[in-house]
Amino acid sequence: MIIIFTYQDYLLVKDDDTAKMEFVRALIDEHKNSELYKMAQIADEYDRHKNRTIVEYQKLLYDVTGNTVPDNWSANFKMASKFFNRFVTQENQYLLGNGVTWEKEDTKKKLGGDDFDVEMQNIGKKSLVGGVAFGFFNMDHLESFSVTEYAPLYDEENGSLRAGARFWQIDSTKPLRATFYEEDGYTDYIWNKREDTGKTEGQVLKAKRPYKVKVRTTAAFGDEIYDGENYPGFPIIPLWGNPHHQSELVGLREQIDCYDLIKSGYANNVDEGSLIYWTLQNAGGMDDVDLAQFVEKMKTLHAATTDGMANAEPHTFEAPYASREALLLKLRTDLYDDAMALDVKSIEGGAVTATQIKAGYEPLNSKTDQYEYCVRDFLTRLLEIAGLEDTPTFTRSVIVNNQEEMQLLIQAAQFLPQDYMTRKILELLGDGDKADEILKQMEEDELERQEQAMEMMAAQGGNPQPQGANMGQANA
Questions:
Q1: How many structural domains are present in the chain?
Q2: Can you name the residues that pair with 70 across neighbouring β-strands?
Q3: Is residue 330 part of a domain?
């Protein structure tokens, strides 16, 4: 039976260090047994190019009695694809790759500056892989916790996050550390295994303290906390990767495994097909293992001995490939369709129109729209904790037909302000970040031309007549 702890369960715990410490340890164990945690661990392996199914796959041999032994002689390539990493990276960077844009200039600075955009990408990637990630607003910057390192406590009544424990352990032989976060502060715990009894005992490493502390240093007492305060709400905010509250690997894992197994089996057949196979006559006493050892010996020594009655006849064959390549291509197409990802192979080529490019992006746009709702909800709650008011916007990175887009801009130039035209053209050229600098330089050049025109008028005695008119009067 799986027990799911809630914030109301924690409120029933006795108000002493031992009881709270035991509850935190039980919360961590319960979280590790949850389906969300287990799937997040598997998804993390797929994201790191360590597909569990293909890594654990073992070829077997069967003898005449039906017993199995590991096949350590034939080819056994284990090629893990990187589809999952590509899908979640594409979705995350498509929305957050250019950072978050705020209406007020000082908002990003108060949230951590340029590091805020980097941390948002980290939280976003973790939320897509694990289903959810957690952002901790720590004084003046953002920190990210994955679901594999943070055990949450949700409120039974409204589902909001009210507390939780961040835990880590370098190795099973090392101490388990945890920080338990509450609305009114956080406490550090540690669990060590005693050498004499082998039992694990915990203790409070640091007592509860507020999130914002004021420290003074004196010669007599050194550093001393003399005051502290907390945030208007719980400073750890969940970011869900999708409305289903599950890892993006769900629904894709089986197709990825199928692709990897077929691709690896294809390579095994090609490798084995390049060898010469032997038919052994008068060798009925050899079992499957003996035959495998004979083939291995032929592969290494290219020679083998037989008794006077045995005979070895060589054979070769071509591995079938057409059906495998067709299935791999279909699996690849289906994976991109089901993941709603952009397959650049569908829009590559020199004559692709802007309409074709937009059509290729439509599935990714629809999926990212859902993801954006989750990110906006996260940022709204973050601004409340930080005491800020602002509205975020996002700039998505897309492939464009520059020539076609430039022609549309030129045709609309007479209806648009010059500053807007300049910014759009620079974005198409890949220099959008230099727009402010170039606009400032254009303004300075215009002022310089006006000053030169005024000086020329002054030199001509204030008569701005063009030079052509004076020449006409002289000829007359």
A1: 1
A2: 60
A3: no
